[in-house]
Amino acid sequence: MHARSAPQRPRPSPPDQGWALFLDVDGCLLEFADAPDKVIVPLGLRERLHALSEQLDGALALVSGRSLEALDDLFWPLRLPAAGLHGLERRSRNVEHRAPIASQLLRRLCAEAETLAIDHRGAMVENKRAGFALHWRAAPQAEHAMRAFAESALSQLVGYRLQHGDRVVELLPVGGDKGGAIAAFLEEAPFAGRHPVFAGDDLTDESGFRVINARAGTSVLVGKRPDSAATFGLLDPADVRAWLGMPGTDHDDGDPAR
């Protein structure tokens, strides 16, 4: 296990039976890849998450920018409580909210974005049905064009917003965020009445950190980003997996996002 901690932030204690545990996925549980469908789920992670969920009496949820459908595909056969699309979608024990279906205009803009990405090798568009994300992790030269397209597309849409992240910008309906999703979970069994803990790496996780801090919980930044509301730190996804109680060194052979 890692013995190091992120700069200026102490390492969080290991998971406790009294926790309500919320985990971001990309950049937190899993290393980033050039494209979302290329991420690798490390060997044993699904089993460890299942064991943790049982240890916490079901009070473990994924909180991600991916859709609920994409999360289920990624961690199949595991099906955990989850918030998808940065809180626009949420599934708990008794409640499931799905994002609205894309309009014809949104579908057209997504197709235009895909055409733009073809002109910038390595750039890509992730269709999230209720919105879409423009990625340039593998094409840093495309950042200006992708951001400009997102701004132009936003000006044509009503009720949408831009969600900025690490080498990605998303167009999503105005509505929930990760903090709101976590707050909703904490009002319901089995999460209510427990010590809340949230680990995440990106700007999109800051609303979650603020909700956790307001409840005297444990907010954990993954990585070295200096400006964050998080009060604890871990170095990287391998460090997160070690913190959760698994080595996190081997990977499923040929099993990127299922």
Automatic annotation (TrEMBL):
Entry EC no(s): 3.1.3.12
Enzyme class label: hydrolase
BP term (GO), one: trehalose biosynthetic process
One Pfam family cited in the UniProt record for this chain: Trehalose_PPase
InterPro entries: HAD-like_sf, HAD-SF_hydro_IIB, HAD_sf, OTSB-like, Trehalose_PPase
Family of the protein in this entry: Belongs to the trehalose phosphatase family.
Name this protein carries in UniProt: Trehalose 6-phosphate phosphatase
